[in-house]
Amino acid sequence: MTSVGPLLRGWRENRRLSQLDLSVAADISTRHISFLETGRARPSREMILRIADCLDLPLRERNRLLLSAGFAPVYGETSLSNPRMAAIQAAIRQVLTGHEPYPAVVVDQRWNLVDANAGLALLADGIDPDLTANVLRASLHPEGLAPRIVNHGEWRAHLLHRLRRQIAFTADPELTSLYEELRGYPCDQPEPEIEFPGPGDIFVPMRLRHDEGELRFFSIMATFGTPLDVTVAELAIESFFPADDHTRRVMTEFAR
């Protein structure tokens, strides 16, 4: 296991902070920051948590820092099936069912599908169930949703850009592997490097081919506001909304 000093230095550099920047934010001397990073000083549990908070680290990584310094993890990682998570499960189910007939999914940090509502059936129709286990893989795989996405290049660029930002925040190697996999999928459309809006554009829609005509969706991401558990902190709900009246009518009829 990597010792705490190199981990602290790695995260500080990941956040593009100097030792002086971190010392000011954490109210610790620059000299002590240097000693912690080189192993000349051993941080207390409280010191690690203070620095981790200043670096805005995910709860999983805060636990990893504690373990590397010889301390027990502070933040639990509770299965959703645990009775203690009943309130979380109820909140998720309320959001999912309340959003019908429009699609909504619950994913973990690595975009694995945790739960979904009935509206997802329209998006997932005809996709291999093995692909639907991961939402990003199902969206961009050539045997997934990708062939039905009218603006495949634009939507793909949007998803990959969002994933790159998440990797920068979490430094999760599994997300990096997923990114490299997704980037290797074929795409026969231009992929804009920058999301530059056209006249009247206010978001990047997902434009989907359908028997009833093109459907257009935009999405909203929601997370739990005050998580103290790794599982809860890594859950996200993506809710898709109709971007025009035609899509709204088709989704309403589909639900019937």
Number of helices: 13
Strand proportion, as a percent range, falls in 5-15%
Low-confidence stretches: none
What would CATH call the class of the largest domain?
A: Alpha Beta
Compute the average pLDDT.
94
Counting helices, strands and paired strands, the structural category is alpha+beta
Total strand segments: 5
Total discrete domains: 2
The string of secondary-structure elements, in order, is HHHHHHEEHHHHHEEHEH
Rg result: 21 Å
Based on the structure given, which CATH architecture of the largest domain is correct?
A: 2-Layer Sandwich
GO molecular function, one term: DNA binding
Domain HTH cro/C1-type: 8-62
InterPro entries: Cro/C1-type_HTH, Lambda_DNA-bd_dom_sf, MLTR_LBD
Protein name: Helix-turn-helix transcriptional regulator
Summarize the structure.
This protein is an alpha+beta fold and 256 residues long. It has helices spanning 4-14, 19-26, 30-38, 45-54, 59-68, 86-99, 120-124, 129-132, 135-140, 152-170, 173-183, 230-233, 245-255; strands spanning 104-107, 113-116, 206-208, 215-222, 236-242.
Report on the architecture of this protein.
- Helix 1 packs across helix 3 (30-38), helix 4 (45-54) runs antiparallel to helix 5 and helix 10 (152-170) packs antiparallel against helix 11.
- The chain has 256 residues and is of the alpha+beta class.
- The chain starts with a helix and ends with a helix.
- The radius of gyration is 21 Å and the shape is elongated.
- 48% of the residues lie in helices and 10% in strands.
- It is built from 13 helices and five strands.
- It has helices at 4-14, 19-26, 30-38, 45-54, 59-68, 86-99, 120-124, 129-132, 135-140, 152-170, 173-183, 230-233, 245-255, and strands at residues 104-107, 113-116, 206-208, 215-222, 236-242.
- A five-stranded antiparallel β-sheet has the order 2-1-5-4-3.
- The mean pLDDT is 94.
- It has two domains: 4-68, lambda repressor-like DNA-binding domains (434 Repressor (Amino-terminal Domain)); 83-255, 2-Layer Sandwich (Beta-Lactamase), CATH 3.30.450.
